[in-house]
Every structure is written in structure tokens, then in C-alpha cells.
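Quick question, first post here. What does this chain look like in 3D?
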Amino acid sequence: MAERQYKGYRVYAYIALARLFAALDLSLEQPDLAARAPAAIAQPRERVSKEELLHAIRSNSHMTEKVIEYLLAEGYVTVGRDERGYDIRITPAGVDHLRRYRQLYRELYARELQVHYRYTGAPDWIR
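> Answer (accepted):
Ran it through. C-alpha cells below.
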């Protein structure tokens, strides 16, 4: 029987940041990203819940909590709670981190990302 390989939480953190950034409807390559990101963060086009991140990283709730705690500790996300549940948003620091290190993460975690999306294909926001 094949042993299941678990990925480290950092590859999941990259996937979560990419998913949260996708909610802003911006491009990491646009030249005025630093100026436009705060307004997009204040008025995101969609809400990203804890459940959505769980589905994005395709892991269990324990790993989702670990990823969110790591992103909070680094200052890359904020987590709000209201009557509808959790509202998780990327911060300007998270946008900057993703912009700077996206290519590195894609190269560093290429094998893990390929295995992670082998049956469903990678979503547009991670490509």
C-alpha cells in the first residue's frame, strides 16, 4: 500500500495566499499594484471564508488552522468574524510577499503543486 505524502504547511500557505489574492481581481504583474492593492483589499470582489481556504488547499481543518495561524503571525492576512462566519483577507504585506516570491514558490514547490492538482488540474489563480 502506498504511503500518503504530506506537504509542509508552507506550500499550503502559498496556495492560500494565491487564493486570497485572486479575490482582489488584480494582477501581480501590474505596475501600480502597491497603490491599488489597499483599495481592493478594503472592497474585495468576493469573500473568502475558512471553508473556502480548506477547499483551496485541499487539506483537513487542522492544517487549514495551522496555515491561517502562520499567515496571521507573518502579517500576510487578517481574519474577521461576523454573523456569516470568517472573512479572511490578504494584507498589503501579503500581496507584496506574494509578488516578490511567487516565482520562487512555483519553482520550489513545482513537484508538490503538480501532485496536489494531478486529478483536477490547477485553478487559474495558481497558474
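DSSP finds six helices and two strands in the chain.
Strands lie at 77-82, 85-90.
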